[in-house]
Every structure is written in C-alpha cells, then in structure tokens.
Amino acid sequence: xxxxxxxxxxxxxxxxxxFKQLINISIAAGKFILIHPxxxxxxxxxxxxxxxxxxxxxxEVHNWQYEVGEMITFEFEEVLFFYALLDLSCRIFLCxxxxxxxxxxxxxxxxxxxEFIRVRSFYLVQAExxxxxxxxxxxxxxxxKELQGKVEQLNSLA
Length: 158
Hints:
Blueprint: E1 5-7, E2 10-14, H1 17-35, H2 40-47, H3 53-64, E3 71-75, H4 76-93, H5 96-107, H6 113-138, H7 142-155
Helix pairs in contact: 1-3, 1-4, 1-6, 4-6
C-alpha cells in the first residue's frame, strides 16, 4: 500500500492498481449493503449512520477520475466514509452475508467460486493494510474516535 500523505484535513495517496481494485470492490460492496438492509449487521450500521447513501455515489465519481500513478486526495469526510465502508465490507465478507453475496454473484454469472474467493482474499488483505494506516494516522482525531466507537458497537453483534 502506498504511503499516506496528510496535510490539513486532507489525505493523499498514490493510486496503484491494487488501490483501484480496493476502491472498486468497496464501492460494489457498498452498493450491496445499501440494497440489503434486512441483515441485522447492515441495519445496525445504518442505525449508527456509518454510511450515507448519497455519499457512495459521490465517492465513486471522485475515484473514477484518477488513474494509476496519479495522486488522489480525499477530504477528511471521505476518509471517514471510506474507513467505515472498508470496515463494514470486511465484516460482510467474513459472515453469512458474504456467503449470500457469493451465491448471488455466482448465480448471476458475474463470477465463479474460485474467482470470488480470490477477490475476497485480496480485498481482506488490502483493506486490513489500509484500515491500519488510517487508524494510525487519525487515532487522535475526535471524529475518527467517534467512528471507532460505532465500529465497537458493531463488534457487539459478533
């Protein structure tokens, strides 16, 4: 994972092929999350206002503008959104919701079992690295601490 550059309330990172994949999988997972509120984990995340529906589309558009090798800059609000999206997406991949997602993707012909497992494994490793970088960078920030409190509340569902 590329080095994070923080200045003021902005964070920049060089776009790599892996980072683009992380973003794309996160956005796809976010879309799944928003259309499947019947799962308890997703309902609780929505109740905690961890993800804003309209923000996902803006996040997607912002990220499409950058190619590999360019520097992308996120406002702090986007960093919080992306962190929450990563955390929730990882949780989904690791529970029965991920099994349902896998079955839907296979049934629709979007992927097969082997490819889904490969993509999920890649995602979990990359997301863990990025989550750790964000946590280390913003651990003293009050807004980030508030988001971490919501993440801890989700832990109580496990």
